[in-house]
Structure formats: structure tokens, C-alpha cells
Write a structure and sequence with these properties.
Strand content of chain B: 35-45%
Order of helices and strands of chain B: EEHHHHEEEE
Largest interface: A-B, 40 and 40 residues
Oligomer: heterodimer
Number of strands of chain A: 6
Radius of gyration of chain B: 17 Å
Strand content of chain A: 35-45%
Number of strands of chain B: 6
Helix content of chain B: 10-25%
Helix content of chain A: 10-25%
Shape of chain B: elongated
Structural class of chain B: alpha+beta
Distance between the termini of chain B: 15 Å
Radius of gyration of chain A: 16 Å
Order of helices and strands of chain A: EEHHEEEE
Number of helices of chain A: 2
Largest sheet of chain A: 6 strands, antiparallel
Shape of chain A: elongated
Structural class of chain A: alpha+beta
């Protein structure tokens, strides 16, 4: 398939995709704190929302063409384990469900963030509103 | 030495905070794209977005979620937080370049945990824009130390 985008119709439930890994550095933390002005919370040297933010970026770096996301609708997220500077994370996506709507459809994507030891660091579900092909054929 | 942090016992159910506002700029969105690696056209392609229902680029949902986390620390004295447990979150209205967001937060649950030195605090958090529209809303769980 040579499609350049994954529309709602193309989303396959139970499909699993793994992303490349990325080492979380002091530079990431400094940039994150600069953008958010978050004070360090807890004993970790990485703000807990940072791996979540990096997981969503990693999610685009998979073999399948990107989903045509019209909106990020919701998020359920759990933090299991602290990540530390120098750790290397990657993420796994699994499509849990899809439900057609009048415009597009809702796709629930379970994301799991792992560290370099294969341990689960954070996990949760993203709900996206994804465009249908007919509506955005010219995109 | 005075410890400015507030412990589990001192945080009361029903406490409410409101943060200062913060204007979300193009620079914030560009930096967040670089940081997160999320270069989706919604956030990065001005020409494409002119033709979209939004009419212009919108901020990443997670950027505003991250900004509210920073606004929280400007809304109240820091908690003696040991860990962030998780969150349940809804993205309701897009944030555009130049919008000013602020956080309103309320303590809605306090719960003891198996370990006696800590408890769970659940906050209801609402991000509002300059038109007082609810932009994002959800609950966050914080594991907070009890006063030793």
C-alpha cells in the first residue's frame, strides 16, 4: 500500500506498532521546564509529563502512514515507574477500538512507554478523532 | 528551616486555586514540536491549517496540559509530592496562537494509601481561555507525603 495517510477506514483494531527509542537527556528536561515552567515534582529528575509528550512524538515514527487526526479528544494515563535522565524510552501503540461518528470516527489507541530494560514506565489510552477518507480526500 | 511544601494532612478537601494567565505563543508551539517530536500539520503547517475548520495552527493538546502543570505551581504553595499517579483528561476546545489560558483547580478527593507515610490527592483541573471557555478538563492523582 502506498497511501500517504491512514484514514478512519484504514485503522485496524488490535494492530500493534513499535516506535524507535529515544534517550531522554538533560536538554529535554531543560527545554520542557523552559516551555512549561513546571517546578520539579517528586523525587524524579524528569517531570512526569515529559515522557508522555515524547511518546506522542515517537508515535509518528512508525512504518504506517500517519493517522489523519482531526482532534485529540481525551487521555487516560498512569505513571508506573520513574524515568531518569540517560534512560532510553520507546513506545508501543495498540489500537483498542474504533467507532464511526458523523464526521470521522473515534479511535482509542493504547500507548505503553518502556525503558531500556523493557519495563513499563507509563501507560494509558489516547482517544483521537480521525478523518474519514471521503471528507478529506484532497488532504 | 522552614519547609514551604504542604503535606497531605494540611491539604483540605474542597481547596480551590486559580493561576495567573499565560498567553500561548507561536514560539511555545514550535518549541514543543521540537521537544515532543510531534510535527503534525495541525501544529506546524500554517497554509494547510488556513483551509481547515480551525483556520490556523492550533497548540498541541499536550502542550496546554504541560503548561497547566506549570501554572499549578504558580497557583499554590508546592505539595510534598512523592509521585504523579496518573490523569483522566478531556480536550474540549482548541487553543490558538495568542490565546491566554489559566488553570482552576480543586481538591476533590483525599485517600489514605497502603504505605502509612503517604496519601493520594485527586485534583479536578479546568483550563479556561480568555473567553472563559473550558479548553481542557480532567482529574490528576498525586501521591503526597504526610508530615513526618
Amino acid at each position: 500500500m502506498t497511501a500517504s495517510a491512514t484514514y478512519f477506514e484504514d485503522v485496524v483494531v488490535d494492530k500493534v506498532q513499535l516506535t524507535p527509542a529515544i534517550t531522554v537527556t538533560e536538554a529535554h528536561v531543560a527545554m520542557y521546564l523552559g516551555v512549561t515552567r513546571e517546578m520539579s515534582m517528586g523525587s524524579s529528575d524528569i517531570p512526569d509529563v515529559l515522557p508522555l509528550c515524547m511518546a506522542i512524538g515517537l508515535g509518528w515514527r512508525v512504518p504506517d502512514p500517519p493517522m489523519v487526526v482531526m482532534a485529540f479528544v481525551g487521555l487516560d494515563w498512569k505513571v508506573m515507574k520513574e524515568l531518569r535522565v540517560g534512560d532510553t524510552m520507546h513506545s508501543r501503540s495498540r489500537i483498542v477500538s474504533k467507532r464511526p461518528m458523523r464526521d470521522g470516527g473515534l479511535v482509542v489507541d493504547e500507548r505503553t512507554v518502556f525503558d531500556q530494560h523493557g519495563e513499563v514506565v507509563q501507560q494509558g489510552k489516547f482517544t483521537f478523532l480521525v478523518a474519514k477518507r471521503q471528507k478529506e480526500a484532497s488532504a | 528551616m522552614a519547609d514551604p511544601r504542604r503535606y497531605f494532612n494540611e491539604i483540605e478537601l474542597g481547596e480551590e486555586y486559580e493561576s495567573p494567565g499565560r498567553t500561548v505563543t507561536e514560539a511555545d508551539i514550535v518549541m514543543f514540536a521540537g521537544l515532543s517530536g510531534d510535527y503534525n500539520v495541525l501544529h506546524t503547517d500554517a497554509e494547510f491549517m488556513k483551509k481547515s475548520i480551525f483556520g490556523e495552527r492550533i497548540a498541541h493538546g499536550l502542550l496546554c496540559l504541560a503548561i497547566q502543570s506549570g501554572l499549578f505551581s504558580r497557583a499554590t504553595a508546592p505539595y510534598a509530592t512523592l509521585a504523579f499517579g496518573g490523569l483522566r483528561w478531556k480536550f474540549k476546545v482548541p487553543v490558538k496562537i495568542g490565546d491566554t489560558i489559566r488553570l482552576r483547580a480543586k481538591v476533590i478527593e483525599k485517600k489514605d494509601l497502603a504505605k502509612p507515610d503517604r496519601g493520594l490527592i485527586t485534583l479536578d483541573r479546568t483550563i479556561l481561555n480568555q473567553r472563559d471557555e473550558v479548553v481542557q478538563q480532567g482529574q490528576t492523582d498525586l501521591i503526597v507525603q504526610k508530615r513526618p
